[in-house]
C-alpha cells in the first residue's frame, strides 16, 4: 500500500463508524422508491386509510354462493380507485358515516371460481368478458353510522331482485334517503352507480383498464 493512501483509509473507516447506519437507511429508502407506483398499480386500501369498515363477504361463506372464494380478506384496488374512495369516505365522515366494504378487486381466477359455482350471467359476470371488479375499478359497499350500525338500504348485499334497484319505488322514505346519500357522494366523487344493485359502484376512469389476475399474498 502506498503510504499516501493510509490516512485516507483511516479517515474513511472513521467516517463509516459514524455514518454507515444512516447510509443503510438511505439505501432502503432508495429501494422503496424504485417500486414505481402509478394510478393503475394495485394497492391495498388499508395502507392508504384506516377509516373504512370491512365485511368481505366472499372471504367467508356468508354470500349467495354459500362458498368462501378468497383465501383471505383484503381490499386491493387500482390506486386511482383507492384515491377516489378515500375522498368519498372523507365526505361521508363529515356527515357522521363511514363506508363499509363488501368486495373490491377480484382476480380473474376468482371470477372463474364463482362462475363455476353459479354459471348464470344474471348473478355472476362471465369471466370470458370480465367485470369492472376484475379491472380493479369497482367496489361493493354500504354505509355505517357512528356506532358502526349499517344504514337500512332495503335489502341485504347481493339480494338479486328488483327491490335492490335504485329505481324500485316501493321502499320506505328512510331507505330512499339512505340510498340517495350513498349515491350522491359516490357519483360526485368519480363513480358510476349500477341501477340494479344499490351496493355497486365503478370508477368512471377505470372502465378501460385491463382485466387482471394479479393476486395478493395471504399472511
Ligand atoms: Zn359489484
From TrEMBL:
SUPFAM superfamilies hit by this protein: Hedgehog/DD-peptidase (SSF55166)
Active site (catalytic residues): 197
Catalysed reactions listed for this entry: D-alanyl-D-alanine + H2O = 2 D-alanine
Enzyme Commission code(s) on record: 3.4.13.22
InterPro entries: A_A_dipeptidase, Zn_M74/Hedgehog-like
Gene Ontology terms for molecular function: D-Ala-D-Ala dipeptidase activity; metallopeptidase activity; zinc ion binding
Superkingdom of this protein's organism: Bacteria
Marked site (Transition state stabilizer) residue numbers: 106
Required cofactor names: Zn(2+)
NCBIfam families to which the protein is assigned, alphabetical: PRK10178.1
Annotated function: Catalyzes hydrolysis of the D-alanyl-D-alanine dipeptide.
Protein's name in the database: D-alanyl-D-alanine dipeptidase
